[in-house]
Amino acid sequence: MRVHVVSDVHGRADALARAADGADALVCLGDLLLFIDYADHSQGIFPALFGAETATRLVRLRLARRFDEARLMAAELWASLDGDPADHIERLVRQQYAEIFAAMPTPAYITHGNVDVPRYWGDYVRRGHHVLDGQSVEIGGLRFGFVGGGLRTPYRTPNEIDDEEFARKVEAVGEVDVLCCHIPPAIPELLYDVVARRFERGSEATLEAIRRTQPRYALFGHVHQPLAARTRVGRTECLNVGHFRGRGVPFALEW
């Protein structure tokens, strides 16, 4: 059995269409949308509305952790738009989701990332797309559990939830062979992004579940350039499957 795993697609519909080539199924760990590309500030929803130069200013404020200034700047920009800003965002979000789900291979087992807007997914999933969150499913004789979304951060991305809610989803998954989350377990070397030069948030509940139930694998994404892409917790191999927007290549899991 061969399953390809991707995370942090961020608009790469072109590469996603080929991501399951040679595999029996695709697993997608979320972050399908692109709001701002930190490598190319002309790409994403924000620059589509306000331009690349404005996006560069916002990125610099965020990288400097000047979050209050970034939020004030963004609020002024949203207020400058004609009509309701939510309508502009929804139009561009839906446009990206239409392209991404049209390209998504089948069968695919998909969970949400922290920048996703799950309430729109039902309009775009196709036959053979299985959206899972706090749930498990059998793939090729192994039990895969899925936990989507992210935890609260100063960035206030759209799909961040409280620690307690995240922990309930981890608990609902139970014992599995492969634990699939968007964010990593709370292990420092898995959380530090060497390019952004900051720690991302990881889940203590996921780490505790790994220690307690010892799945074969714990798979995740979220951290685009991690200090460490893999480590072991007991018998569990913890693996960052890679930044799919940047690499365009899936992680292959075989058994």
Automatic annotation (TrEMBL):
It holds the Pfam family Metallophos. Residues 1-226 form the Calcineurin-like phosphoesterase domain. GO terms for molecular function: hydrolase activity. It comes from the Bacteria. InterPro entries: Calcineurin-like_PHP (IPR004843), Metallo-depent_PP-like (IPR029052). This is Icc-related predicted phosphoesterase.
